[in-house]
Design a protein that fits this description.
The complex is a heterodimer of chains A (about 100) and B (about 140). By secondary structure, chain A is an alpha/beta fold. Chain A is built from four helices and five strands. Chain A is globular, with a radius of gyration of 12 Å. By secondary structure, chain B is an alpha/beta fold. The chains are: A alpha/beta (about 100), B alpha/beta (about 140). Chains A and B meet through helix 3 of A and loops of B.
């Protein structure tokens, strides 16, 4: 399953719940305000630690928020809108953690 | 003589996920026409509003972050940023836009508008206001 998270990890428990529900073959894609969790050095980094899922963040949303590539957490892959489509096509289901 | 009130706009939301940040900024700029004593506070995800290097072109959204640079020209010269909120998010003052104003009482010297202060200090400044708006 592909999970998308669009809320800031500091304002919602969406990411925490999503990570705890996601299975090891799943992918989590951070979009919109969800991409704030992709920044290293913040308290939300702890939520991602130990997560076994493949983690992605949407590049246009990172760019819009001034998050440069050198500030991303380890192990996270950056994708564009085309990568979003590929992830959605690859997984049989999509769950949006709104 | 109309009474001048101390007003604080408290910004608590990230810039692009909702309309609060842009709407709040517009209220501040419109409100300056009434010549009140205005300051802004950035707490929680509100600190993300003034992050450097925001480029919304690829996301197809309006980039209103350069508008914060105009605040100094409208006599909004005190932008309080909460230290705790920056730290929680792994940010420092260097991640923020270098917003400035020209001090008319000091030969128009360019001075920084952003003041990073701790929550306790900010709560005291908050308590000293006449009117508070929370966005």
């Amino acid at each position: 399953m592909l999970h998308t998270v669009n809320k800031s990890p500091y304002c919602s428990d969406s990411l925490r719940l999503c990570i705890s529900y996601a299975g090891k073959d799943d992918a989590v894609l951070l979009i919109e305000d969800g991409v704030y969790a992709a920044m290293c050095g913040g308290n939300s980094e702890a939520i991602l630690q130990g997560a076994e899922v493949a983690l992605y963040a949407l590049w246009p949303d990172l760019q819009a928020r001034g998050i440069s590539e050198d500030k991303l957490v380890d192990g996270l892959k950056v994708v564009g809108y085309d990568g979003f489509v590929e992830l959605a096509a690859k997984h049989s289901k999509v769950q949006s953690w709104l | 003589m109309p009474t001048v009130k101390k007003m604080m706009y408290v910004n608590r939301r990230a810039p692009h996920g909702t309309g609060y940040a842009l709407e709040g900024l517009e209220v501040v700029l419109i409100g300056t026409a009434f010549e009140q004593e205005v300051c802004m506070a950035f707490i929680g995800d509100g600190v993300y509003q003034i992050m450097q290097g925001q480029d919304t072109r690829a996301a197809g959204m309006k980039n209103f972050s350069p508008t914060y640079k105009a605040l100094g020209d409208y006599d909004v010269t005190r932008l309080y940023v909460e230290q705790e909120s920056l730290s929680e998010r792994g940010l420092s003052v260097d991640d923020l836009m270098p917003l400035t104003y020209e001090d008319e009482d000091d030969d128009w010297a360019e001075k920084p508008s952003v003041q990073v202060i701790v929550r306790k200090e900010l709560s005291q400044i908050m308590a000293a206001q006449d009117v508070l708006f929370n966005f």
